[in-house]
């Protein structure tokens, strides 16, 4: 295993391009596959690509704000103290890996956007506490928690099919989360991953190439290690505009205004911790905790530097999704696995096919819209539980996120790393996680 770990890390370091170039290569690959295996002409594939290019703008903005608002909140004095205090639990590199993995996994079970940001920011604080830890493995550990998101409270597919009016209600009705998220097979998968991933990541740290160690004392990206100035503004004669910029009253008023809406939202909607309300909470807590508009805006200036890669790359993935869906290529991939399935193996093949499709359509809700019309009728024909079929697709969506840079972008932006810095370790996480997921889907 040590040899495999070092081999994967070396290969990824040598051959995996930057995340932006990865998106370009995927675009070319999907274009060629569409021309070869569907009835689409090259001109039509280009049309599908361009037609879908801007379909993820709202989502790109949401993910950009996840990075920005998370960074802003993390740079408030109160959150810095909280994360620093929690990081004191770890005194050694092994403890650092175990702690970051567990905290990130638990946070992603609550909400995927929240977990991505918390995992990265907490890892930075732990790295300051234990500077000899391998920084790349630490951030891979933080990202590994994202593997659990589609088995947790923000899982888009099980929440969608539990909502009246979803697009397959006439076929399968509404399926309560007791049959999906709180089913025995899902609880088994979540429990195994939650309590074994920390030890797997600890092993990866010990198995890494000792000649390519990048501990936190050597890895000093400027965007992480410079601190936002939260000191008191110097006393002196201030203009009326400067008084407003340094007014604690204004920050308090708008902060309380925002949090009042949060209370109202949860009263009206229950514990619906979606990505918009997570961003909303982090934004207004950031305003409150920075105490003055000027300190808040100073933090914003530093935070937006981390969102550039997300803004540029998301449209390319939207274009890839447009080619996959409109050409019928995603349908062909799904049907290839349906055709070789029986009642016992269908959940496993649904999981694998979803993992492959997710590589090109990295959106849980978008992937369900593509695969559900194929997988649900097939499961009904084979007599397979539709709740398990839905969760098989959900876990396939989560599984290959480990080697899909799309979802790693927010974490990488905060960490100041490139995708090749963590992906060699994530390949091993992908391979390991296949087994508990497959066992849960087949035998529970």
Describe this structure in words.
It is a single chain. By secondary structure, the chain is mostly helical. The chain is 73% helix and 0% strand. It contains 23 helices and no strands. The chain has helices at 2-15, 19-37, 42-52, 57-74, 77-87, 93-110, 112-129, 135-144, 156-161, 169-172, 184-207, 222-225, 240-245, 248-269, 275-290, 293-303, 308-327, 329-338, 346-360, 364-382, 386-399, 405-415, 419-443. α7 runs antiparallel to α8, α19 (346-360) runs antiparallel to α20 and α19 (346-360) packs parallel to α21 (386-399). The longest helix is centred in the last third of the chain and has 25 residues, at 419-443. It is globular and about 75 Å long. It starts with a helix and ends with a helix. The relative contact order is 0.17. Residues 220-229 have low confidence and may be disordered.
**How much of the residues is beta strand, in percent?**
under 5%
* Largest sheet entry: none
Q: What is the rounded distance between the termini?
A: 29 Å
Oligomerization state: single chain
Contiguous uncertain segments of 5+ residues: 220-229
Short description:
The chain is mainly α. Helix content is 73%, strand content 0%. α2 (19-37) packs across α3 (42-52) and α4 (57-74) runs parallel beside α7.
Which features characterize this protein?
single chain; 444 residues; mainly alpha
List the helices and strands and how they pair.
Blueprint: H1 2-15, H2 19-37, H3 42-52, H4 57-74, H5 77-87, H6 93-110, H7 112-129, H8 135-144, H9 156-161, H10 169-172, H11 184-207, H12 222-225, H13 240-245, H14 248-269, H15 275-290, H16 293-303, H17 308-327, H18 329-338, H19 346-360, H20 364-382, H21 386-399, H22 405-415, H23 419-443
């Amino acid at each position: 295993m040590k040899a495999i770990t070092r081999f994967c890390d070396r290969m990824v370091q040598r051959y995996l391009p930057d995340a932006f170039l990865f998106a370009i290569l995927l675009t070319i690959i999907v274009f060629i596959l569409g021309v070869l295996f569907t009835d689409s002409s090259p001109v039509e594939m280009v049309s599908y690509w361009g037609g879908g290019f801007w379909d993820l703008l709202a989502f790109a903005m949401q993910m950009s704000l996840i990075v920005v608002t998370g960074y802003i909140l993390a740079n408030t004095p109160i959150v810095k103290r909280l994360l620093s205090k929690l990081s004191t639990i770890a005194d050694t590199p092994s403890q650092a890996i175990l702690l970051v993995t567990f905290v990130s996994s638990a946070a992603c079970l609550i909400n995927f956007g929240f977990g991505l940001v918390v995992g990265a920011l907490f890892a930075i604080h732990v790295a300051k506490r234990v500077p000899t830890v391998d920084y790349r493995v630490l951030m891979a550990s933080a990202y590994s928690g994202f593997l659990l998101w589609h088995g947790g409270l923000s899982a888009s597919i099980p929440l969608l099919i539990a909502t009246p009016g979803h697009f397959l209600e006439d076929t399968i009705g509404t399926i309560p989360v007791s049959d999906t998220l709180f089913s025995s097979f899902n609880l088994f998968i979540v429990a195994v991953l939650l309590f074994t991933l920390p030890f797997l990541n600890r092993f990866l740290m010990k198995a890494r190439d000792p000649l390519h160690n990048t501990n936190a004392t050597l890895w000093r990206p400027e965007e992480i290690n410079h601190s936002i100035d939260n000191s008191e503004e110097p006393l002196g004669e201030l203009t009326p505009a400067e008084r407003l910029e340094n007014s604690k009253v204004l920050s308090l008023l708008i902060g309380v205004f925002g949090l009042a809406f949060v209370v109202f939202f949860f009263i009206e909607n229950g514990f619906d911790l979606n990505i918009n309300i997570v961003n909303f909470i982090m934004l207004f807590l950031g305003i409150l905790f920075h105490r003055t508009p000027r300190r808040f805006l100073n933090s914003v200036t530093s935070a937006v530097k981390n969102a550039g890669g997300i803004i540029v790359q998301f449209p390319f993935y939207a274009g890839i999704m447009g080619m996959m869906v409109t050409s019928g290529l995603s349908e062909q991939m799904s049907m290839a696995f349906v055709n070789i399935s029986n009642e016992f193996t269908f959940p496993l093949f649904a999981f694998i096919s979803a993992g492959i499709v997710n590589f090109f359509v990295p959106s849980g809700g978008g992937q369900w819209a593509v695969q559900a019309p194929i997988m649900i009728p097939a499961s009904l024909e084979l007599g397979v539980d539709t709740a398990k079929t839905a969760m098989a697709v959900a876990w396939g969506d989560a599984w290959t996120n480990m080697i899909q840079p799309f979802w790693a972008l927010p974490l990488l932006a905060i960490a100041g790393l490139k995708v090749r810095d963590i992906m060699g370790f994530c390949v091993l996480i992908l391979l390991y996680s296949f087994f508990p997921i497959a066992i849960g889907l087949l035998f529970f």
